[in-house]
Amino acid sequence: MLATYASSAAEKARADHEILNEFYGPVPKAPRRTPMRELISTVLSHRTTHADEELAYDRMLEAFGDWPGVLAAPTADLAHAIRTTRWPDTQAPRIQEILRRIQTETGGSFDLNFLADWPLDRAMAWLTDMPGIGLKTASLLLLFNYRKPVLPVDTHVHRVAQRVGFLGPKVSVEKAHAVLLALLPADAEALFNFHKHNYWHGQQICFFLRPNCPRCPLKGFCNYYQEHYGAATAEALAATPTQWDPAAWGKLPH
Fold this sequence. Notes:
Elements: H1 9-24, H2 35-44, H3 50-64, H4 67-72, H5 75-81, H6 88-106, H7 120-128, H8 135-144, H9 155-164, H10 173-183, H11 188-204, H12 223-229, H13 234-238, H14 246-249
Helix pairs in contact: 1-11, 2-3, 2-8, 5-6, 7-8, 9-11
């Protein structure tokens, strides 16, 4: 789809999806982690680097063995085990409450696969009712592991959408989940790729400070580019890479 600076939000969102799908390539459908790991790791990741999140998760299970052990652990000991996260004293009781509710829902196990059979609204409401689980965390789990048609929005996706111009400048990250979802096809595979591609784009090109606009394949309809450089010239468009080059720019993250 050809989009312009004057295109509608829906047209820009669809063009973003098509172009970044070509630029980064389709992402395999396999979940990156088990459902329980996806849920608990995402809770641990709040304002924490990926490396520190992974370290906290590994230390937690090394210290307490399994989910029953984590649930039964003294909360102060659990907080110490996950001390590489941003707020361990807050996260520890949250994790134990989440485990307690899962155990109650399942009759004793720590298996989230019942969510696969639940309607989306029920699954989303059940997850977001728990402490520390917001729309982004619930959406990541439901999309990545159960292929529900939802769209996780983090700061990278939010920034790209606002700069390109298919999300209003005053729309919060929380509200952006519904706004962006309405612009895209209700298809889990498309939403998964849209999330991953825009997440990578915000990390690798559309930085918070000094974005790498010359490398960006969205410059032909990006509001930020137009405001800072003027409309993209034929020469600028012709010089834009059409695919991510891992040999030159590095491997894409998880």
